[in-house]
Amino acid sequence: MSLVTEEIKAKAEIYHGDEICQEKTKFLLKEVGLPNGLLPLEDILECGYVKETGFVWLKQKKKKDHKFDKIGKLVSYATEVTAVVEPNKIKKLTGVKAKELLVWLTLSDIYVNNPPTGKITFKTPAGLSRDFPVVAFEVEEPSSKEVVKKANGLFKVAEHQEVKEV
């Protein structure tokens, strides 16, 4: 059963489509002080955010398993992921599990310390927790020279680059 009710939707900013939802997800993570690669979802159908309560949801076409190579951990994201966000913290998380040894553990909270220690903590509903380096969950964003702008439905490279034949 979905945690996203019509009552919640009535109070929310809602977006549809993978491209805008990817952008909004990364922006929200950055805005609350969490690494931008924390939610590597694909084919997002819908995302929503209730600013007053911090409630967020993401719906994707199918569940996604993602390996965070820098720490060697496999994480599974359900078709619907929900959470409550606040500065430096995600709480009441649903739809996310991490594989530890041979067992899948449900995650309920994710937070970074303030002042920053360079560590991010993942917590289960049972109270177990594990720390990892924040950099393991950061995705490199394009530099200003690589930024591509959309104009009239066409892509244009922001800076002219000379191409030489070899």
Structure description:
With about 170 residues, the protein is mainly beta. It has one domain (about 5-135): Roll (at5g01610, DUF538 DOMAIN). About 10% of the residues lie in helices and about 45% in strands. It has helices at about 5-10, 20-30, and strands spanning about 15, 45-50, 55-60, 65-70, 75-85, 90-100, 105, 110, 120-125, 130-135, 150, 155. Strands 1, 2, 3, 4, 5, 6, 7, 8, 9 and 10 form a ten-stranded antiparallel beta sheet that branches. Strands 11-12 form a two-stranded antiparallel ribbon. Strand 4 (about 65-70) and strand 5 (about 75-85) form a beta hairpin. It is globular, with a radius of gyration of 18 Å. The chain starts with 5 loop residues before the first helix and ends in a 9-residue tail after the last strand. Residues about 145-160 have low confidence and may be disordered.
